[in-house]
Specification:
Layout lengths: L13 H33 L9 H29 L9 H33 L9 H4 L2 H12 L1 H24 L13 H19 L20 H5 L4 H16 L4 H4 L5 H9 L7 H5 E3 L9 E7 L18 H9 L1 E7 L5 H10 L22 H7 L3 E6 L8 H7 L4 E3 L1 H4 L5 E2 L2 E2 L1 H9 L8 E6 L11 H4 L17 H25 L3 E7 L14 H5 L1 E6 L9 E2 L4 E2 L3 H9 L5 E3 L13 E3 L3 E4 L3 E3 L22 H21 L7
Parallel strand pairs: 2-8, 2-9, 3-11, 3-12, 4-5, 4-8
Antiparallel strand pairs: 1-13, 3-10, 6-7, 9-10, 14-15, 15-16
């Protein structure tokens, strides 16, 4: 008898294989249990984000489908030991296999516990499990990110908890693997045929586990996670290992030459071209994107495209204006043309820059790192205005080495590029750059009315670590208003930075408008603050929407209106060009002029899509959510699948244009 009560004869042969596979099943149960506990912890910590739509059926579906993802993770993890155990049919290596299994289990523990902790922090920041934002550590300012994490999340207690949980889990794992259930001590089946059948059945069982509980059909995939009526619950279905695998797979697939199939599975770009060209006879991508300006009677002399860091759309929306977090933008919206139903094309700043600087949708490529970005894309906004005779300038409150902004913006048509290092010489900064006041003061001191200008401004203040002295700045709100429920203790501080950014942009617009002739201001946000505030109602618009405001009484002819027209960042570029270009001017754009967009209109973001009466997740187009102020639940839109397909076609053409140029041939 060995220490686990198994006869010594089990050292090799069928009884030994039965025992080894039984131990693999024990390790699998440990992994599945750990992943289930994490899912329950995630729901428990962030459960106040669950909307009123969620039912008991949704919770049960999350656990049921989540179990399939956990089975797949556990089955994948067991592959080495399950296959290695076959050797015990001929070799007495049971002890070595036990050691390999313990090592595999301990490796899981010391990967899983940190992954669980970091995934919770990630969810707290981004409202999702691991996704493409994790690659910010590669392409973003790593030092600034680490300093922000140190200031905002106090990692020492988190790391201490990880170490303690890791030690405790390791002890529990060893005890669990040392225990031998009585089932493993039962006599093994006799007869070669019977043993072969049973062994093959067990092997197929492991294979089914690795595929998420099925041997036939499609294995479990992330797309299967969208099974609840509530988006938070949908995000709790997968586990951190699945989320990481998906993020890396998508990243690798999109960056390599065959990445087009990730966006457009058929690979036939002629189909995508026909969708985007809408029946026009064109032979290449640029032809499908070509537009003819209708002409304007009063072109602006100066244009300011202001991309505000983390500017929430809800704070400007009439349903929430009375809370007072964006009073200046609310006033500008009342005095100009305001589009509330707007979505960002991506969930981060860089994706928004690609849409507004290069004029391309989010398609998973780091456009600013592509060789093709050294010269302007036909859709590049500054290049279009340079052709119209405007002086093009780019202002960024951070440091221009971030995301290669210096060379990227120069390659996309900007004649003059200013960063926080130049604009904020001698001025207090944090790791992300100078305060908004310093950016605007520098621009105001360098206004020149003698030459028409197009000016792009990217702000930085409304960003972690949120270190402004709000009391000194005069922030007037001392407690969170009653309608808002938030999961973060620092919500009011973050909203104070939103208020500060609003105050400064209002001051700048008023001052610049007084000093310049025929100035037009276009204002939007790169993304929301990701605060996971639990608003009353369906709560999806508030989590995703950004505002878009056009202000310029002379240029807009004094128009003051709020338009239900839905759009996204890609629609801003053609809107600005149409306001400035003479009739017949040829330009290129993926989006449409918001001032002449046909109804019903749509604004596809990276994950959601907004229309004039609802917002919906693209993975669940038949479950639309209400917009603020709408009491009736919207019905499913029969046109939505076609709209989503067209947007995928645009992303496919953009991927091809950036990677391979103006051709339908791809590697």
């Amino acid at each position: 008898m060995n220490p686990e009560g198994v006869p010594a004869a089990a050292a090799s042969g069928w009884p030994a294989l039965k025992r080894q596979w039984g131990k693999d099943a024990q390790l699998g149960l440990f992994i599945i249990g750990a992943l289930l506990l994490f899912r329950l912890l995630l729901i428990g910590l962030f459960g106040d984000q669950v909307s009123d739509r969620a039912t008991l059926t949704d919770y049960l579906a999350v656990l049921r489908v989540g179990a399939r993802f956990d089975l797949s993770t556990a089955g994948t993890w067991l592959i080495p030991t399950v296959l290695a155990s076959l050797l015990v049919l001929w070799l007495p290596i049971g002890r070595q296999l036990d050691g390999l299994r313990r090592l595999s289990g301990l490796l899981f523990v010391w990967l899983a516990i940190p992954a669980f902790g970091f995934d919770l922090v990630f969810f707290d920041e981004y409202g999702d499990q691991f996704n493409q934002h994790i690659f910010g550590l590669v392409h973003d300012d790593t030092r600034a990110i680490l300093i922000t994490i140190w200031k905002s999340y106090h990692p020492l207690p988190i790391l201490s908890a990880i170490a303690l949980l890791g030690w405790g889990s390791s002890w529990l794992l060893r005890r669990w693997l040392a225990f031998t259930p009585s089932l493993l001590l039962h006599p093994a089946p006799t007869g070669l045929l019977r043993r072969a059948v049973v062994g093959f059945a067990i092997f197929l069982g492991f294979a089914a586990v690795a595929r998420g509980g099925t041997l036939w059909g499609e294995p479990i995939r992330v797309k299967h996670a969208f099974i609840a009526q509530d988006m938070f619950l949908n995000r709790a279905v997968i586990n951190p290992f699945t989320a990481l695998r998906e993020a890396f797979e998508v990243k690798v697939n999109l960056e390599r030459s065959g990445g087009l199939s990730t966006i457009w599975p058929s690979g036939d770009l002629h189909d995508a071209l026909n969708l985007v060209a809408e029946g026009r006879p064109v032979n290449d991508i640029d032809g499908a994107l070509a537009r003819q300006a209708t002409g304007t009677h009063h072109p602006p002399r100066h244009i300011f495209m202001i991309l505000m860091e983390s500017q929430d759309g809800w704070a400007v929306h009439p349903a929430w204006r009375q809370l007072g977090f964006s009073p200046q933008l609310a006033q500008l919206a009342q005095e100009g043309i305001y589009f509330p139903n707007m979505l960002p094309v991506a969930s981060g700043t860089v994706g928004a820059l690609h849409a507004l600087v290069a004029g391309v949708p989010e398609m998973g490529l780091e456009v600013n790192y592509q060789l093709s970005s050294r010269t302007p894309y036909p859709t590049a906004l500054a290049e279009q205005f340079r052709r119209l005779g405007y002086r093009t300038r780019f202002f960024y409150g951070g440091f221009l080495g971030w995301q290669r902004l210096d060379s990227y913006t120069q390659g996309q048509g900007y004649d003059e590029i200013y960063g926080g290092g130049r604009m904020g010489a001698g001025i207090q900064t944090n790791e992300w750059g100078i305060r908004d006041a310093a950016i605007y003061d520098y621009i105001l001191s360098h206004l020149d009315d003698s030459v028409p200008s197009f000016n792009f401004i990217l702000t930085t203040a409304n960003h972690p670590p949120y270190d402004l002295d709000l009391k000194a700045e005069g922030f007037p709100i001392s407690e969170l208003p009653a309608p808002l429920e938030a999961t973060k203790a620092e919500t009011l501080k973050v909203l104070g930075h939103l208020w500060y950014a609003d105050r400064e942009v209002g001051r700048f617009v008023r001052s610049a408008h007084e000093q310049l002739t025929d100035a037009l201001f276009a204002i939007t946000g790169d993304h929301t603050t990701r605060l996971q505030i639990r608003f009353p109602g369906d709560n999806q618009f508030e989590q995703w929407a950004v505002p878009f405001i056009l202000y310029g009484p002379e240029v807009l002819g004094g128009r003051q209106e709020m338009r239900a027209t839905a759009g996204d960042h890609l629609d801003i570029n053609p809107t600005l060009v149409e306001l400035a270009a003479p009739a017949g001017f040829t330009y290129h754009a993926f989006g449409q002029d918001l001032l002449h967009k046909q109804s019903p209109s749509y604004g596809p973001g990276l994950e959601f899509i907004v229309s004039e009466g609802y917002i919906a997740n693209q993975a669940q187009p038949d479950h639309p959510y209400r917009l603020p102020g709408n009491s009736a639940l919207p019905s499913a839109d029969p046109q939505l699948p076609q709209v989503i397909e067209r947007y995928r076609a645009e992303r496919a053409l953009a991927w091809q244009r950036v990677r391979n140029g103006n051709t339908l041939q791809h590697e």
